[in-house]
Amino acid sequence: MTLTVDEAGLTLADPRAYADDRRLHEALALLRRDSPVHRVEKPGYNPFWAVTRHADVMEVERDHALFLNAPRPMLATAEFDEINRQRQEQGVALRTLVHMDDPDHRVVRAIGADWFRPRAMRALEPRVRELARRYVDRMVELGGECDFAQQVAVHFPLQVILSLLGLPESDYDRMLKLTQELFGGDDDDFQRGTSSEEKVAVLLDFFAYFQKLTEARRENPTDDLASAIANATVDGAPLNDFDTASYYVIVATAGHDTTSATIAGGLQALIEHPDQLDRLRAEPGLMPLAVDEMIRWVTPVKEFMRTASRDCELGGVTIREGESVLLSYPSANRDEEVFGDPFRFDVGRDPNKHLAFGFGVHYCLGAALARIEVRAFFEELLPRLGSIELAGTPESVATTFVGGLKRLPVRYSLV
User: Fold this and answer.
1) Closest CA to 333 of 314, 315, 323, 346
2) Which residues pair with 407 in a beta bridge?
3) Residue 173 maps to which CATH number?
4) What are 264-316's pLDDT values in tens digits?
């Protein structure tokens, strides 16, 4: 059955499409070719313009004064948009860096920036490599067969980011469950419930946890990122409770879920492209390029949205003030105009101008950490790997925002 462009546009608002690569990329390729800035009107959602070409996504990312994060930073139902609007007006809504524009964005981003600079990353790398060894050892303990996504990939980056925050290991399982409920709110296996109220309840649970953490770190500061956030000031005043909790939420969730998706998806790509696995093992110096190819291939962040602050033109289409655009990163990262043979997994791809971390002032704060984690894991795994194959059918999370594999059954031999 051949898709129409309108049907292809509707795909971007269907969480199940992101769990079906073939279906998703068929729709995205059609939009790039025939309607790269395409108006989507789906029942239950406020209208938006789907932006699918790399050049157009870049144009939006570059002009953060024209295209604003607020008030609609990501795709949600119209009902959830309205709930969020009301909570924003009341000052009791999630307000992370993803939700902010300058000048607030610039000031608040600076609070955590030093913790992710190259010097800090070099200091953290030994700990990352130690944890990478621990989780490869865990694969050995699992006896040569496991669900790599759930038993390995989700735990390694989670432990890295929560140790950076200074959270106790006893809280890791709680953070994992809350993160999966937050990003997997449209997935039958992860969602707490289907109503907007139940989705808001997940955020409130995050807030309750992090409010206690803030109180503890303000009373007894420690040398960790949690203390830096809890004791940060803007114009001489501490962040309010919701902005403080929001900062924790973005670090604790985006800081591990995206990386675990890349590690699991990267391993699947190597299994399904054994020539590239052999090449990477023979040429370990390709690992930095391979890491970026895994990130491009998986593209864990599926979209962000921006709202036009005035009338403008994008890709030959007029966008009116107040209208929203959806930036499709999986589409931009398969754009035939930018990537030679974009559906080929190539561990030596160079250049690789992927947009998985965004671009411009909203470029991912944790990009360097993500690259270190992915590189450390595969540099630990590949020299010890005898053989590996799929032991079942991989399954992906149903989502329109952040996600990747939720199951990757594998069979392997390790030394």
Assistant:
1) 346
2) 395
3) 1.10.630.10
4) 999 999 999 999 999 999 999 999 999 999 999 999 999 999 999 999 999 99
- Residue 138 near residue 380, CB atoms below 8 Å: no
Q: What is the Rg, in whole angstroms, of the alpha carbon atoms belonging to the chain?
A: 21
Residues facing 389 on adjacent strands: 411
Cis geometry, peptide bond prior to residue 330 (ω within 30 degrees of 0) = no
Peptide bond into 103 cis (omega under 30): yes
Residue type, position 178, single letter: L
- Quick count: other Cβ atoms within 10 Å of Cβ 103? 9
pTM: 0.95
Q: Pinpoint the alpha helices (H) of 184-308.
A: 196-219, 225-230, 241-272, 274-282, 287-298
Instruction: Round to whole Å and give the CA distance between 353 and 58.
Output: 11
Residues paired with residue 405 on neighbouring β-strands, in sequence order: 396
Please state, in angstroms and rounded to a whole number, the distance separating the CA atoms of residues 263 and 139: 14
| Residue at token pair 């070099």 | 122
Helix/strand/coil for 229: helix
- Number of compact structural domains in the chain: 1
Q: How many other C-beta atoms are found inside a 10 Å radius of the C-beta of residue 127?
A: 14
337 contacts: CB under 8 Å, gap ≥ 6: 53, 54, 55
Residue type (1 letter), 208: A
Given the structure tokens 């759930």, which residue do they identify?
Answer: 150
List, as one string, the DSSP characters of 134-190: HHHHHHHHTTSEEEHIIIIITHHHHHHHHHHHT--GGGHHHHHHHHHHHHTTTSTTT
Characterize the bridge pairing of strands 385-390 and 409-414.
Answer: antiparallel
Helix (H, G, I), strand (E, B) or coil at 73: coil
Enter the tokens of residue 224. 């960790």
Is 321:309 a contact under the CB 8 Å cutoff?
A: yes
The predicted-structure confidence for 56-102, as pLDDT tens digits, reads as follows 999 999 999 999 999 999 999 999 899 888 888 887 777 889 999 99
Range of the domain at 382: 5-414
Pairing state between β 385-390 and 395-396 = unpaired
Q: How far is CA 197 from CA 173, 180, 201, 210, in A?
A: 23, 17, 6, 20
Type of residue found at 91: G
Question: 118: buried, middle or exposed (CB in 10 Å: 19+, 13-18, 0-12)?
Answer: exposed
Instruction: In whole angstroms, give the CA distance from residue 182 to residue 88.
Output: 18
